[in-house]
Amino acid sequence: MNITKDMLEELVDLIKTMTAIPAPSHQEDQRVAFIKEYLQRAGYEPIVDEAKNVIVELPAELDGVHLYTAHTDTVFPDTTPIPVYEKDGKLFGPGVGDDTANACGMLLALKYLKKSGLKVKRPVAYVFDSCEEGLGNLKGMWAAYHRYEKKLKRHIAFDGSTDHVVNRAVGSKRYEIKVQTVGGHSYNAFGRKNAIAQAAKMISALYEMKVSDLPGKTTFNVGTICGGTSVNTIAQEATFLFEYRSDRQEHLEIMKNRAEQALFTALGCDVELADGARLQVDEETLVSVTIIGDRPGMGDVEVKQQEKLSDYVKEKLTLFTGEEPDFTSGSTDCNIPLSKGIPAVCFGIYLGSLQHTREEWIDIASMEVGLKTMVSILEEDYR
Question: What does the alpha-carbon distance between residue 348 and residue 313 come to, in Å, rounded to a whole number?
């Protein structure tokens, strides 16, 4: 398929339109409706599953499904139209690249593949999946995996840029830790335990953890903290969100143990990082734990098959962009198949920057070679 100037202009208009449609994780309904209608107009019969995935399935006689995904959700909580604009050869807007540009690229590719009249020679599934970001916990990808798990041969996720390919999964565990105390008036009840002070003590202890001795890359973070009532009230409640992640699956258990030891140091008693765990620290203080995220890391993928898929994508990207991509680890839709031993890689069709910020932008010209790469890969399933 030749990528024409008109197709690229069509892609830009499509990205502008879809970027403006808000899609927080778990609230992708407006984008789901837009994508479903677009695919219907293109001549497909899309399915919308219970996870809010929009699915196009093309059966064929050969064994082994090739799965292609692009996620529909963004990290932004907005439920009103998202601002997007074009300036100096760039498109600006929160979520314009991650992952709207790639989802729009797959939509456009499917439209023109339908027009070409080609037929698939092996079973393929195109999934515009929900809940990839943050506390979406890969809900859409889990549903897609379970739909095809017995037949799934390989997976390519379109997410990110043309200069990086993710071929190793970063696993993570995420927790909400809540501290509750009696509280009271800051003057009259002075001396009672303060939930914010207790939470701060716990956070300080967590940040004393060491990770430099762990091979690969392992990180941790406290992302939010909230609580209290007023400046003259001893805080009755404080909550913080904590995560650790690693590109080595075995290090997740090590980090769990280290985090529990850090919390023991802070409180003087054991805190189990298990969903629903509750600890009465003293007469005034209760600590409770909720698991809010659990992403599996790298599983036992057959090395030669994973290398074969990585080399294949590298060859395609190098052919069309003129540059060899970097290979890296990351947390993407690929986490699920990789954790189950199925070859998977992730890359995108654009160059840009400032993903996960409201200043995100993508370079319009870069999408020509990115779209060519995507289409070239998709076409190989056809005859």
Answer: 11
